């Protein structure tokens, strides 16, 4: 048996008395496929499918499913992502008379996927992605293009017979949401409810009519996705599918947007969205600001309300700027009543209960919960939402959630249904209670003998990171209220006492470690935004979310308090107590204030940058373009110019001149910057002007005979008055690095908003340069010894083994880009399980790719680091070039565990990072030892996760020349990732880079998905199928 309901058309007498389904969403779709076969039904990433093609594809999918053993009324799990194949699979399942159970391959953890499959009860699974799940047979849905041709009549008659026997109560889909036992709960929605929703025709109803393009940006496993699909294709519209990487371009091409308020808030109502005439918000309470900025004479904004159990939406209302936020117009035959806590009497403010044809059948395999949530009152079936609302003359106003659902780290979680069951699943825990206190998730467990540290490790290993409490306390037993419930207030009062007891229990020693501990605890409190009373001495730097940026902040805080500790030690020691014990007293640094004119030697990093530019005059420049909407904004050319004048004066690096003859830099009294201003009539003209100036500057750079005159920082501002402003900046890396850019943006925002008085002190770069040059002399022998030892494996390094392209590209630098089907939470969980940083996991994946492509277990790459790990108190806020290119050499071993490999690479990284600021000495040593033709790194990787760049309201575009033949950029896109490979088109072919990029994605996913005790050999080599997938 494939499904858990039935596998043929035989019914009981009771089932045969169920009314037939007169009209289904498939019927409505088929009508448009017949009426307008060549109309576009959906588009995704440049591909389109017509109504006729989608119709044919769905029939082929249905027939293939029937051939594989699926039957009408089966529950069919669908593992999928945003794709045209997802759409054909959904319709194919429905055409078979079965229901689909969507599983988001990109977003769900493996534990959630397996729990869902177990609940559905089918060992056969339809999948549009390449994956395997132990114990389940996956039916692979290939590319849609193989299914869009005309279909044979064979088998179609059987599908028509199936359609004729469908009943109103037959399920259309099962959507899984957070469950009451910590397991996902499946909401079973019947065909009758879905078709009732899409047939609504009141003013403001969601209907994607012919000629309309509707955005689909929801998770495929969210009921909103089903709502968008059916409300569009049932009316002849076009679905525009989007991913985080292309949502702006896709959304701006649509006529209708259906989004949560949080999604909409990530967009700006620029002129490119002028074709959008309707916006529907749902899933969260809307805010007035969004309504105001998105409403226009040609655009309406609507608020929708409806739980999954009530088929996506039961009400819609047009929002008026400044008007009340209410639930609005109900769909036909649906009613909302507000009932008291006993569900007996209607009250002005109470729990929202819904009745009508929108209701779900109930929860899959959860009869008790179904009876609790779906109840009869006066002979009529209702659903209790768990939401509070009040009714007045303006309508229904949403008030709050009734149950214990809170937001932790951006995710809605159920304390009773998710967190507490997770705690109780640990052996030895008898009782558990959880609550949110001062933005922290706090948990108590009994009895007091429970090993809290081991419990935390278990939770991190087994559950999503947002389920794991920030603080866990073990006590003998819970205090109860008179009603017999856990006294949460009493537990909250105990939190401070528990933390204070831990602080008092810290052993104070004669070497003044207690003072160091106070400093470390204060630093933890500031960095992680928590009261110092809630930071125990056992607090873990990594578990609190520590990474390279926070490590720099911690090191700077220690140095300001006259303590010294290498950055690598912070990750190694981890706990506050251990860090405090290792911190040593250090002399106070001299003040960072300097005279108006001072000369000091160039740092090794500056010197290298400038020498490279002497050889190639266009190298080591970076171009930034920052665009901002200025409607109702104080930003204009005048206050931008004044803001930058303040910034240039504050930061000595912009008053500095470089002298390559003396290898020195001199700070002058005034900044030396080119500044120009232009006006434009519209966005297109603005881009034209900016591009013209940029190309002229690049031409100037390329035509220079030498770099004896490094171009000064060059600004040109292009203003479209009252609409937008673009700030363009071409600057040499000797003036600015990525970390500095984040500082400058932060200061710029403060100044243009009238908060210049709150700017922190600006350390002078030359003071840090003096320190670095002094350290280079003081540690000369140590530095030389380090690099000579570090370079011992050099002879084992091999270049990437790829043939030169048959036809070299006419472009010097080409690009391959892809989204990565990996969630941030999955990467965080994997990194924390192995006790390493996020970047370490990424570097290891690239190391494995290099091993594949060099046929050597010893691999080398350049990585870009902050350069902020030097032991100087000014390093966190100084603006100037410290961003070092760090050489990472690593030896992979198949006989090692994955965890040991990750930790070994991180150890190597931390060790070399302590000396990365003297990186030019490695280059010199290699040439002297191995000759001028010795191998040098042919790839550089930039992991852009920890840089302190708050883009604020600016849309940023950046261009610079790569420093290696292959450059990999690993970029966070909200809760997922994107990768870009930039490569020398004269040396590498596009197909080879395509294969290399896919290989990296595969290796990264393998690492993240590996078990804790997994071995490197388990990752294995690419199978023939995988190899074909990665290289075709």
TrEMBL record:
GO biological process, any: secondary metabolite biosynthetic process
Keyword field: Ligase, Phosphopantetheine, Phosphoprotein
Pfam families for this protein: AMP-binding, Condensation, PP-binding
Molecular function as annotated in GO: ligase activity; phosphopantetheine binding
Keyword field contains Transferase: no
InterPro entries hit by this protein: ACP-like_sf, AMP-bd_C_sf, AMP-binding_CS, AMP-dep_synth/lig_dom, ANL_N_sf, CAT-like_dom_sf, Condensation_dom, PKS_PP-bd
UniProt-recorded name of the protein: Carrier domain-containing protein
Organism: Cochliobolus heterostrophus (strain C5 / ATCC 48332 / race O) (Southern corn leaf blight fungus)
Organism ancestry: Eukaryota, Fungi, Dikarya, Ascomycota, Pezizomycotina
């Amino acid at each position: 048996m494939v499904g858990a309901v039935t596998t043929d058309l035989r019914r009981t007498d009771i089932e045969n008395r169920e009314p037939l389904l007169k009209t289904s969403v498939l019927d409505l779709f088929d009508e448009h496929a017949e009426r307008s076969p060549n109309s576009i039904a959906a588009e995704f990433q440049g591909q389109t499918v017509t109504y006729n093609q989608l119709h044919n594809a769905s029939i082929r999918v249905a027939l293939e499913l029937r051939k594989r053993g699926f039957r009408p009324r089966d529950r069919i799990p669908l593992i999928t992502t945003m794709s045209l194949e997802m759409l054909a699979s959904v319709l194919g399942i429905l055409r078979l008379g079965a229901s689909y159970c969507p599983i988001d391959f990109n977003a769900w953890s493996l534990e959630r996927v397996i729990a869902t499959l177990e609940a559905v009860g089918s060992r056969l699974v339809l999948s549009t992605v390449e994956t395997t799940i132990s114990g389940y047979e996956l039916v692979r849905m290939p590319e849609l293009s193989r299914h869009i041709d005309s279909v044979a009549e064979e088998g179609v008659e059987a599908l028509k017979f199936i359609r004729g026997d469908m009943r109103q109560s037959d399920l259309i889909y099962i959507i899984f949401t957070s469950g009451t036992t910590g397991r996902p709960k499946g909401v079973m929605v019947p065909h009758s409810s879905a078709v009732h929703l899409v047939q609504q025709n009141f003013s403001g109803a969601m209907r994607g009519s012919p000629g309309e393009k509707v955005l689909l940006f929801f998770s495929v496993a969210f009921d909103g996705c089903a709502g968008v699909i059916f409300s569009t294709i049932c009316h002849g519209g076009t679905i525009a599918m989007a991913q985080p990487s292309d949502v702006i371009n896709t959304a701006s091409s649509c006529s209708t947007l259906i989004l949560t308020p949080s999604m909409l808030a990530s967009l700006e109502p620029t002129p490119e969205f002028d074709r959008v005439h309707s916006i529907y918000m749902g899933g969260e309470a809307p805010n007035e600001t969004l309504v105001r900025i998105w409403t226009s004479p040609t655009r309406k904004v609507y608020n929708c309300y409806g739980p999954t159990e009530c088929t996506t939406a039961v009400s819609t209302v047009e929002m008026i700027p400044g008007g009340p936020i209410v639930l609005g117009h109900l769909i036909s035959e649906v009613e909302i009543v507000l009932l008291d806590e006993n569900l007996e009497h209607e009250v002005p403010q109470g729990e929202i209960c819904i009745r009508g044809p929108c209701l779900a059948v109930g929860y899959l395999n959860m009869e008790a919960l179904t009876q609790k949530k779906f109840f009869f009152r006066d002979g009529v079936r209702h659903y209790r939402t768990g939401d509070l609302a009040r009714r007045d003359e303006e309508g229904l106003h949403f008030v709050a959630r009734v149950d214990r659902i809170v937001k932790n780290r951006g995710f809605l979680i159920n304390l009773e249904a998710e967190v507490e069951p997770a705690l109780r699943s640990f052996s030895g825990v008898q009782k558990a209670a959880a609550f949110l206190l001062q933005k922290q998730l706090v948990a108590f467990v009994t009895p007091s003998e429970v090993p809290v540290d081991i419990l935390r490790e278990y939770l991190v290993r087994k559950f999503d990171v947002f389920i794991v409490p920030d603080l866990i306390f073990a006590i003998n037993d819970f205090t109860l209220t008179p009603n017999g419930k856990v006294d949460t207030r009493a537990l909250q009062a105990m939190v401070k006492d528990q933390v204070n007891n831990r602080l008092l229990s810290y052993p104070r020693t004669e070497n003044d470690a207690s003072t160091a501990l106070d400093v470390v605890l204060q630093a933890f409190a500031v960095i992680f935004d928590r009261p110092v009373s809630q930071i125990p001495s056992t607090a873990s730097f990594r578990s609190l979310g520590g990474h390279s940026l926070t490590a720099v902040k911690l090191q700077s805080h220690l140095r300001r308090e006259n303590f010294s500790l290498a950055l690598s030690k912070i990750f190694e020691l981890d706990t506050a107590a251990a860090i405090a014990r290792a911190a040593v007293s250090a002399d106070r640094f001299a003040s960072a204030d300097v005279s108006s004119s001072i000369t000091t030697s160039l740092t090794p990093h500056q010197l290298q940058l400038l020498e490279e530019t002497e050889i190639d005059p266009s190298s080591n420049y970076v171009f930034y373009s920052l665009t901002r909407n200025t409607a109702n904004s104080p930003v204009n050319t005048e206050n931008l110019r004044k803001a930058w004048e303040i910034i240039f004066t504050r930061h000595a690096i912009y008053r500095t001149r470089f002298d390559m003859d003396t290898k020195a830099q001199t700070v002058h009294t005034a900044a030396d910057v080119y500044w120009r201003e232009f006006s434009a009539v519209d966005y297109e003209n603005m881009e034209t002007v900016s591009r013209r100036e940029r190309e002229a500057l690049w031409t100037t750079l390329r035509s220079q005979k030498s770099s004896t005159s490094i171009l000064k920082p060059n600004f040109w501002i292009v203003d479209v008055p009252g609409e937008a402003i673009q700030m363009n900046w071409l600057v040499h890396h000797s003036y600015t690095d990525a970390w500095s850019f984040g500082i400058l943006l932060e200061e710029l925002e403060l100044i243009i908003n009238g908060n210049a008085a709150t700017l922190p002190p600006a350390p002078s770069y030359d003071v840090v340069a003096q320190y670095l040059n002094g350290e280079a002399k003081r540690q000369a022998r140590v530095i030389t010894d380090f690099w000579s030892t570090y370079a011992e494996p050099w002879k084992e390094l091999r270049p990437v083994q790829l043939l030169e392209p048959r036809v070299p590209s006419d472009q010097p630098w080409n690009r391959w880009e892809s989204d990565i089907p990996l969630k941030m939470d999955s990467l965080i969980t994997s990194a924390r399980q192995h006790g390493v940083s996020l970047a370490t996991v990424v570097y290891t994946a690239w190391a494995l790719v290099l091993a594949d492509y060099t046929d050597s277990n010893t691999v080398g790459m350049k990585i870009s680091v902050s350069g902020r790990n030097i032991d100087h108190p000014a390093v966190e806020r100084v603006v100037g070039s410290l961003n070092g290119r760090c050489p990472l050499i690593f030896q992979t071993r198949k006989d090692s565990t994955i965890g040991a490999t990750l930790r070994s690479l991180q150890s190597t990284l931390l060790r070399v990072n302590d000396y990365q600021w003297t990186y030019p000495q490695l280059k010199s040593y290699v040439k002297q030892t191995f000759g001028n033709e010795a191998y040098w790194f042919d790839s550089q990787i930039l992991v852009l996760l920890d840089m302190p760049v708050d883009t604020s309201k600016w849309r940023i575009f950046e261009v610079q020349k790569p420093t290696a033949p292959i450059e990999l950029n690993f970029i966070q896109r909200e809760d997922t990732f994107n990768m870009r490979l930039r490569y020398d088109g004269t040396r590498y072919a596009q197909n080879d880079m395509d294969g290399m990029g896919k290989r990296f994605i595969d290796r990264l996913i393998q690492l993240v998905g590996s078990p804790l005790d997994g071995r490197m050999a388990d990752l294995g080599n690419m199978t023939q199928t995988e190899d074909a997938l990665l290289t075709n």
